[in-house]
Each structure stands twice: as C-alpha cells, then as structure tokens.
Amino acid sequence: MAVFTPVTLDQARAFIADYGLGALDEIAPIAEGVENTNYRIETAGGRHVLTLFERRTDEAGLPFCLGLTDHLADAGFAAPRPVRGVSGDWIGRLNGRPAAVIQWLQGAGLHAPTAVQATAGGRLLADLHLKAADFVGRRANPVGPLQWRLLAEKCDHRAAGDSRRMLEALVAELDRLEPLLPDGLPSGAIHADYFPDNVLYEGDRPSGVIDFYFAHVGAWVWDLAIALNAWGFDAEGRPDEAVLSAFLRGYEQGRRLERAEVEALPVLGAASAVRFTLTRLHDQLFHDPDWLVTPKDPAPFFARIAFHRAASPADFGLATA
Predict the structure, then answer these.
(1) Residue closest to 95 by CA, chosen among 190, 179, 8
(2) Of 58, 74, 103, the domain-final residue
C-alpha cells in the first residue's frame, strides 16, 4: 500500500475545505504506486484523488506536471485535471508535504497487458505526444543520466552480495551507454512513467492516463523506450515479442517514427532499463519498514538490459530503410 505520510479524516477535511468540493464523506488509501501517497476521497462534489508528493517528486516541478495534465484535458485527452483551491493554486501543503486534489478517472490499470490492449496503449501514447506538443511548460528530466550516477554512488554504500554484483554491472553499462545517448531527436512534453498500471482501461479500451509526476520535456522516443520496457516484458524480464510489436504498431498508427528514432531504440531501451533498475535497487536498499509500501524488485528490469544490448530495430518489428 503506497502510504508514506498518513492522513486522518479530520486532516483531509481541513485541507479540502479550500477546494470547493463540499463535505468530505470518506477517505481511503490507494494501494497502487510506490512514489507518492494517494488517497481516494469521496465528497459532495464527487470522487477525487488526494495526493501528497514524496521523495523524488520535486515541488518545483509540480506546476509543470499539473499544468501538462490540465493542458491535455483541454485538448480532449483523458488526463486527470487538478482542482484549484480558492487561492487559484493547484498545490497546497498537508502534513508537511506539497499536496493536490486531482480528478478521479474511471477504469483500472493493467498488470499483464494483452497484444490488443498494448496496441491501444501505444496509440494513446502517440496521441499524448501530439496533443502535448504545443504545451509551453519546461522541465528537465528529474531522473536523467546525472541522477543515475548519483543513485549508483548512493547504492554503493549499502550494496552487498547480489546487489553489489548488480550495481557493478549497472555502472559498467552506464559507461558503455553514456557516449551513445543520442540528441536532436523529435521531442516535447513526455510522460516518462508510461507503465500499464498508469494507463486506465475499461475492458480493452483505455479510459485515461495518470501519474505524470516524472513528466518533462524530452525525446518522444525516450518515452516510447520506457513504455516498451514497461509493457513488452513478463514478470521475469523476458521479452514478449507479440506485445512489443503490438505496442509499436499502435504508436505508429498515431505517429510514424523517424529513422533516427528507430535506430536509437536499442540504446534508449537499455538506458531506460538501467534507469528503472537503479531506482528500484535504491528503493530496495534504503527501504523504511515504517512505510506502507513494498519496494519493487530490480532484477526483472536488470534482465531487460541484455535484450537491448543484443537488439536491432528489427527485434522491435521495425525497419530503418
């Protein structure tokens, strides 16, 4: 259960009094997620999400993240609108944390997407990129290559045994990847955490996208590489070729990849696998047992690196010609 900062009913009532949602009837923790504290709240004005931002979500980046979802909602994309308080701000403070009230979207995230669901998810990601293309906000990647090195250095103080061997392999992979990372690729505002549990579905149809708190301005194909790692591998980190090709097919229904993007996918796939392995390894090594959250195993993302190291664009079902 993802609760880092407990919130009582009375505390929540006092906080949402400024949001014009009416009386608070119920508050319940939301089990999904590992980064922020989330509660479902029931008010006279309907169901919403109360989010307290923790750890990696820097407060300075929140206007970008919430502004992006508001922009996307204006463009007809199914992103959750943040609710403004009486002051006109989206962000308040609750129990020492920046906090916001967010629109509730119907549907449920996926745990094992089918090829049909992956095609729809890929098409929706392309739609997100195109509808966010004119968003004027700016934010650098909050978990970019510099942060990968810092995470590795921090993990070095605690890693032992299997964790130590994994960390050494990750540092070697960083050394290999850094000179290969491309620039000058088509870019705009991206989600950067487009996992199946952040895309809500009703049956085989997506109904919305949530959790934009790693969003930043970056290469669209970087977002695609993250998504392919999230959608196209099983629980052990083995590739599911049907789902990988289905997701890409869906994405290209909405936006055709340029040749340079296709050629960059193996490198960016490996880099995104390193990024998520490092954050999960860090969270495992520095887990506080008082937090009501279970850290995710880094091993399945670590296993993805070998696939990308050996991959060519054809392994994603793409051609460079």
Answers:
(1) 8
(2) 103
